[in-house]
Amino acid sequence: MKQQRRKEKILEILEETGFVSIDELVELFDVTPQTVRRDLNQLADSGHLIRHHGGAGVESSTQNTAYNTRQTLGAEAKTAIAKMVVRDIPDGSSLFINIGTTTEAIAKELLTKKSLRIVTNNLHVASILSQKDDFQIIIAGGEVRHSDGGIIGEATVDLVKQFQMDFAIIGISGIQEDGTLLDFDYREVKVAQAIISNSRRVMLCTDSSKFGRSAMVRLGTLEQIDDLYTDVCPGDTYNELMKSFGVQLHCPN
């Protein structure tokens, strides 16, 4: 298949699914990974798609990528982040855990810990952690978002405000170069803000594709974060910003 036809097919797939991996395209086109990366990079340079670790997607500032796609997008990166986070959580800690596929990966790694107390507005996190009989899990009340099992709304915020936890484990959809934290759902953001306000240590957990990504709802700034965990250390602009805010950066060596 000629390059132009491959590019057209890639865009057709993205229109239907929102994300496609390099491995999928290698198998579909029977070409090398290097050929696929070149096609994706050229399409990204022309503004037709956004490159991600391991693939590409269609970017939007008003709507997040579908949950099923996010589950597979950057899975290795999320596992690496999860392992770093869990090393810093002592047994017997209390935690907030909010919505997101990265926080779900962290929940899986938390099964190695003992006697945790968790408040979450994520049904998937609650399900994962319920395997441990020495964990106490409280699910925030509110409206269940059908797309991803997240729980949102004023009742959720009210429940969160009843607690003061050791740690907040939160995800984010976008981080701007000025340190602004962005997400897509206003009601989800209100819950995340309450979690931040009621935690002694805030741990922001995000894969490297979120640096520079746009979303339409402002959650806060990096100044409100204590630790940032990511799979690839960001560039100098973000590094200097985090130093100025006193944010501790954690990324693989």
Q: How are strands sequenced across the largest beta sheet?
A: 6-5-4-9-12-14-15
Number of strands: 15
- Fraction in beta strands: 15-25%
Structural class: alpha/beta
Q: Count up the domains.
A: 2
Order of helices and strands: HEHHEEHHEHEHEEEHEEEHEEEHE
How much helicity do the residues have?
Answer: 25-40%
The name of the CATH topology of the largest domain is Rossmann fold
The CATH class designation of the largest domain is Alpha Beta
Largest β sheet strand count, sense and barrel closure = 7 strands, parallel
Q: Which CATH architecture of the largest domain would you pick?
A: 3-Layer(aba) Sandwich
The coarse silhouette is: globular
Compute the average pLDDT. 91
Show unreliable segments. none
Span of the ends, CA to CA: 40 Å
How many helical stretches? 10
> In angstroms, what is the radius of gyration?
19 Å
Description:
The strands form four sheets. A seven-stranded parallel β-sheet has the order 6-5-4-9-12-14-15, sandwiched between helices. A three-stranded antiparallel β-sheet has the order 1-3-2. Helix 2 crosses helix 3, helix 5 packs across helix 6 (101-110) and helix 8 (154-160) packs parallel to helix 9. The radius of gyration is 19 Å and the shape is globular. The chain contains ten helices and 15 strands. Helix 10 (236-245) links the parallel strand 14 (227-229) and strand 15 (248-250). Helices cover 40% and strands 23% of the residues. The N and C termini lie far apart (40 Å). It is of the alpha/beta class. It has two domains: 3-59, Arc Repressor Mutant, subunit A; 71-250, Rossmann fold (3-Layer(aba) Sandwich), CATH 3.40.50.1360. The mean pLDDT is 91.
